[in-house]
Amino acid sequence: SKRSSLPAKGSHVLFGASALDAADDAASSGLSRLSLIVLGHVDHGKSTLAGRLLYARKKVDERTLRKHEQSCAAIGKASFQFAWVMDTAEGERERGVTMEVGTAQVDTERHKLTLLDAPGHQDFVPQVIAGLSCADAAVLVVSAKTLTDSNQGEFERGFIRDGQTTEHVLLGKGLGINQIVVAVNKMDQAMEGERGFSRARFEEICRTMTPYLAKKGFNVAKKVQFIPVSGLTGENVETVSPGCPLSSWYSGPTLLQAIDALTPTPKDREKSMRAIVTDAYAERSGVAARVRVVRGELRIGETVAIMPMGDVATVGRIVVPSTGAIGTSSDAKRLVVLPGDAAELYLPNVDVARVARGFVLTHSREDLRISVRRRFTAKIIVLDNIGTPIIKGSELVMHMTAMECPVVLYKLVKTFKGKEVLAERPRILTSGSTAEVKVVTKRGLCVETFKEARALGRFVLRRGTQTVAMGVIDTLLADDGKAE
Ligand code: GDP
Fold first, then answer.
1. Where do the Tr-type G domain residues begin and end (predicted)?
2. Mutation choice for ligand 1 from 48, 69, 82, CB with most ligand atoms inside 8 A
């Protein structure tokens, strides 16, 4: 077959000078791949902390950082230097490509880490969903900053009704993420009298978050870690300085150690390839497509089917923005895009009108045609405070990977809590309920069960601009509604 002519596993090489040192293959370096989404209320310090992680692992040198600091100071945001680093990964800036979710790659002791920066504004929820669709775990950033002009700190503000802390927690849970590192950030401004790094403040936040996360279904004892940290000063990202007040009461893991303790999702390199199209535009006589591989492996020169339309093309060029790797020539065949990687492909002789966001590339037409579905069963979590309940037969918009599609919940099978069934065939679903439902989509979509391919089996449901529920696909159904 065509794949047998390719080099054996472990001999992959990424091209481009920077790519060689920045991103030698995970298999040969012995690191496991982990996609981590950084969640949290706007301004709680997600970008700063992400930038600090990159800096700690020397992906960004001090000089570059100072340069960014100066240009940021010039526009009045002196402490945004790390955010700036995060938002403009080299390859993306050069190619002028903007991704829906900022990504950056960095190696920790155990993982080849992809950081996904979730925009923190409510309007960006669909983009958050796109990021979540490939995430293994989440870092939830909550600010411990105490405010002098109010009896509420930033944490409380993110945690009240409509705060994004709670919305992001539910999104993560509904989409099947079960491991969370809660980065209790801005500890330098968690004041106790004149001193920052207040132990009482840290413990107060843990005390509030713990029952909340438990109630939302997280295994707090085993899968949730609370880490006090300062993205701005860098305390407890990689080390704690001896003079820091934190060292007097904290001896737990650093943020990087907590991240290293996370378990990566098996990435199924051996399984047949799936790559989600996140963007596509016309280029010469073909299409330049941005994709994210979620399963299997993709190489230059391979034939791909663009589903659900079924057009076939030979991959003519691959650019991996996060590493700067470029493959165009014949010996670039060794360039391999692995699960979790985003890449830009050139697909010659393809009509741009026949490629769209949310389409899926596979190695063979037959492979995915069987998964172009209109019906499936799913487990969903209805969000808090949705107002009008969800009624059987309501039309909602499903957001999945990089696409959206109108859907109808044509059957409400049951509501449940843990293993206990609360109601069979309920007529409505109210805020906070968990339910099994049957869904029919307006058009045929490339979906999979969550078990088969996480990214293609998790979705969010919106009504207008409001996110009302999220869920995972349990089983695919035939067009007559029967299970197979
Ligand atoms: P995002 O919106 O969550 O990405 O937040 P940013 O990273 O853009 O940070 C928002 C603001 O909080 C900026 O002014 C940062 O300088 C500030 N900030 C972030 N982390 C810390 C921290 O650990 N300590 C302090 N004092 N300020 C921080």
1. 31-267
2. 48
